[in-house]
Amino acid sequence: MSGYPLLAVEDLTMHYQTRAGEVCAVDGVSLSLERGQSLGLVGESGCGKSSLALALLRLQPENAQILRGKVLLDGVDLVSLSEEEMRKYRWNRIAMVFQSAMNALDPVYRVGDQIIEALEQHSNAARQDMVERVGELYKLVNLSPNFIQRYPHEYSGGMKQRAIIAMALACEPDLIIADEPTTALDVIVQDHILREFGNIRKELNMSMLYISHDMAVIAEVSDVVAVMYAGKIVEYGTAEEVFNKPIHPYTRALMSAFPSVTGEKHELATLGGEPPNPLDLPTGCHFHPRCPFATEVCAEQEPPTVRRGDHWADCWNPPED
Amino acid sequence: MAVDVAPQEAAPSIRKVRLTLAMRSLRENWSLFLGTRIGVIGLVIIIFYLVLALAHPILMNTVWEERVYDPVVGYAFDETRQPAPPSWNHLLGTDPLGRDVLSQLMHSARTEFLLGLLAAVVTVTIGTTVGAVAAYYGGIIDTILMRFADLMVMMPGISILIVLSALIGVEHFELALIIGILSGFGGASILLKSQALSVVVKPYIEAARAAGGGPLHIIFIHIVPNLLPLSFLYMMFTVTGAIFSEAILSFLGLLDVRMSWGLMIHTTEAAGYLLQVGAYWWLIFPASLSITLLCTSFYLVGRAMDEIVNPRLRRL
Amino acid sequence: MAAAAQPTSPNEDRPLLQVEGLRKHFPAGSSRFRRNERFIHAVDDVNFTLGRGESLGLVGESGCGKTTTGKMLVRLIDPSDGHVIFDDGTGEPTDIATLRGRPLKEFRKHAQMIFQDPYESMNPRRTIFDTIAEPLQVQDIGTLVDRLDRVMEMLALVGLTPPRTFLFRYPHELSGGQRQRVAIARALIVEPSFVVADEPTSMLDVSVRTGVMQLMADLADGLGIGYLYITHDLAVARYMCSRIAVMYLGKIVEIGDTEEILRSPQHPYTQALLSAVPVPDPTVAREPVKIKGGVTTLINPPAQCRFYPRCPIADDYCETNDHPPLEHKGQEQEVACYKA
Question: Range of C319's domain?
Answer without folding.
Answer: 262-340
